Amino acid sequence: MIDTKLKDKVVLVTGANNPYGIGAGIAKAFASEQAKVFLHYYRKRREDAQKNNSEAPSTPGGEFFRFYSRMKPDDVIKAIKKNDGQVIAYECDLSKTESIKNIYDEAEKRLGPVEILVNNAAHWEADSFLLSKETLVNKAVEMWTSAPKTVTPESIDRSFAVNTRAAALMMAEFAKRHISRDAKWGRIINISTDGAYCFPSEVSYGASKFALEGYTRSAAKELGQFGITVNIISPGAVQTGWIPPEMEKMISSQYPLRRVGTPEDIADAIIFLASYQARWITGQRIYVGGGHEM
After folding, report:
1. How far apart are CA 20 and CA 6, in angstroms?
2. Is residue 5 part of a domain?
């Protein structure tokens, strides 16, 4: 058996309340390695958070995903504690810059200094350079939600505030605290998308993730001298509750491995990058998407 040497490491995972989501899968995977998990979440529409679970749509799709994304992370916490894992949950809006310091302060108070950061939280919306009536709709977008809207200052800002700015500030705060306590070991793993390079119909989302990839490589160059590795995971389509059955069938037929991903597929790659075994890997982007991008 491989020893990842992650026992008792403190890991901060952002965006982890959806029990079907990538963040939840990452949190549970670290807990299974006996790491201490600080789980961040944010419910965009808190007024819906009290809905009874019996009201949840039964079939994956846009409404299914949005329903569970508005939930507290009780199911994730329960699953971790069932296996004697250590977990603390904390809610804040990462688009607010004051949240960055607060989240680290809370993590240190409850579990100790953060040694592993996984920037998973993301904002998504469909926008395009075309007028709405002329939009060339990405087939996946068309099956999941309404046609993209024309790009606006607001759509750009919403994507970059969470996907780029917050992630960059989370890395900067991680580095500052790591260096100030003279730590020698650290891991930062950022979640991008395999469409970041060019993402028609989701232009701000793709661009914000591509910018994050640039920040990641710069951070790897600058922080390596302090024992911090910084890497990127670029997932393909992952079933987190958002892919309707007919769309999953369509996507699967286009992937060499003939299926969409699971949160566990992504979590396994992240555990590797955080592990002792990945000690000489930094500044790398790893596609985890069944061969969709190579």
Report:
1. 24
2. no
Query: Given the structure tokens 């006996």, which residue do they identify?
Result: 34
177-218 per-position pLDDT tens digit: 999 999 999 999 999 999 999 999 999 999 999 999 999 999
Distances (CA, A) of 277 to 2, 5, 44, 246, 269: 9, 9, 37, 39, 12
What's the domain range around 251? 10-288
Residue 48 resides in a domain: yes
Q: Which backbone phi and psi does 231 adopt, to 5 degrees?
A: -140, 170
Query: Considering the domain boundaries, does residue 2 fall inside one?
Result: no
Which residues are part of the catalytic machinery? 205
Domains in the chain, number: 1
**Measured distance CA(110)–CA(106) in Å, rounded:** 6
Task: Tell me if residue 40 falls in helix, strand or coil.
Answer: strand
- CATH code assigned at 158: 3.40.50.720
**pTM recorded for the entire structure:** 0.93
How far CA 108 is from CA of 115, 129, 151, 191, in Å, comes to: 10, 43, 39, 23
Q: Which amino acid is at 131?
A: L
Phi-psi region of 88 (alpha: psi -120 to 50; beta: other; left: phi over 0): beta
Q: At residue 142, does pLDDT exceed 70?
A: no
Element housing 36 (H / E): strand 36-41
CA dihedral of 45, 16, 204, 152, whole degrees rounded to 10: 10
Whole-number pLDDT of residue 134: 60
Does the pLDDT of residue 52 top 50, yes or no? no
Parallel, antiparallel or unpaired: strands 10-13 and 116-119: parallel
Q: Evaluate whether residue 69 is within a structural domain.
A: yes
